[in-house]
Amino acid sequence: MRLEDLGERRVLERVHALLGKPGVSGFDDDCFVSRDGLAVSIDSGPLDELSENAFEAGRKTIALNASDLCSTGVKPEYFFLSLSLPAKKEFAWVKRFFKGAQLEAGLAGGRIAGGDLNEGATYSIAGVGFTEKPLLRRNCRAGDRMVCSGTVGGAAAARLAKQRKVFRGCPAEFKHALDLPDPGYAFCRRAWRKARAGMDVSDGLAFTLHELARLSRVKVVVEELPVPRRLPAFCERHGWDLVEAATRFGEDYCCVFSGPFKDGFARVEKGKGVFLEKGGELIPLQKEGWEAFIG
């Protein structure tokens, strides 16, 4: 059976069954958490999926990894960053990349502690930290409210604008969301006090909510999509579906937390599934988002 027939999650599930469970986290969680609170998250990908601006690319490389740690209630301590670069790449580019990465690591509360350098065109990053209260995806409870450390849909709007050649008219905040995502570190640290569960939104809000609902065996009702103020008008102007832009594409890298919060964009109830509340009706929100090997 080929990987494209399984998809990322089913591949991970089968590999995890072979390896066993050495920590308190499951293969579904954003990062590994050991029984004594050590946490590790690993990401990798092609360099051409990052910004052409080296400084921005360096920052995003750290942010996409730090969001996994932060969503699990982990304070990042160290990042190990490996790059495979073409031999003809200018050193000035490398210098700008690491300046950006160093800045973002500091904003996240950690520092770059090492890595590797080779020839190619990829990046790989491992983030390490500690937590006394892992916010695992299976810990949502009926009665919880869900909060988000940022807005969703801006990165999707910028990517769609690029694809359809209307990028020049795209608001700067959407371009920023795509190339310089902000996990909302300060918000995350405040949310940890009450949160029971967490997950980042790298694969799309719909996927995030469905995973939290499935693993916690609860029902999630979205009362108001946490989108940028200018997104509804931008989508309407270009004939794009707002719900699709806000929930399907991902790359937002903010974090969703579930817990006894006073306010939030969604509520958790007994039952199953994910729904969007509109005009007093509950509309099923389809589980769509990015998954490696099948798109």
Give a quick set of tags describing it.
295 residues; alpha+beta; 60s Ribosomal Protein L30, Chain: A; Phosphoribosyl-aminoimidazole Synthetase, Chain A, domain 2; seven-stranded mixed beta sheet; five-stranded mixed beta sheet; 10 helices; globular
Question: What is the strand and helix layout of this fold?
Answer:
Elements: H1 3-6, H2 8-19, E1 32-33, E2 38-46, H3 54-71, E3 75-85, H4 91-108, E4 111-119, E5 122-130, E6 145-148, H5 154-163, H6 172-179, H7 185-191, E7 197-200, H8 205-216, E8 219-222, H9 231-238, H10 242-247, E9 255-259, E10 266-269, E11 273-278, E12 281-284
Parallel strand pairs: 3-4, 8-11
Antiparallel strand pairs: 1-2, 2-5, 3-5, 6-9, 6-10, 7-9, 8-10, 11-12
Helix pairs in contact: 3-4, 5-6
